[in-house]
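Z., the sequence and structure:
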Amino acid sequence: MPAPVFSWPPAKDEKARRSRLSVRSITIMIIIRYTYPAMLARSKNADYRRLVTQMTEVLMRFLVDNELLLESPYNADGSLNETFQVTKDNLTDDGNRLFREYFTRWSDRIDRGGKPENIASLVKGLAKIRATPPAG
């Protein structure tokens, strides 16, 4: 007999508990690094939405040009796929390190009025990542 799978919250009666024990479930966690749709949904302000689109286009171009994505963020016609999400699973190891260690600096600079096209922090961060072997 297979090992029981426990679920939360606990069942209130024995029959419900047994039925839960016989059901196996798998939970898959997707770690989202950047989501264009959620960024757009945060505001209906036209200036904000323009900035988010510009930021996303610059970021996707950087990721693609540096071969950090395992999937294309573009549609067949070359336009940006508006439902694309950057996840841990569709980034290379270097891409994941870039997001963990340097993306926030670039994003914070934009939030303080910087231009999305200023990717110097991403370029320098990627150079450091590629110059040092991954830890572990």
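The radius of gyration is 21 Å. Residues 3-8 have pLDDT under 50 and may be disordered.

Let me know what you think.
H.
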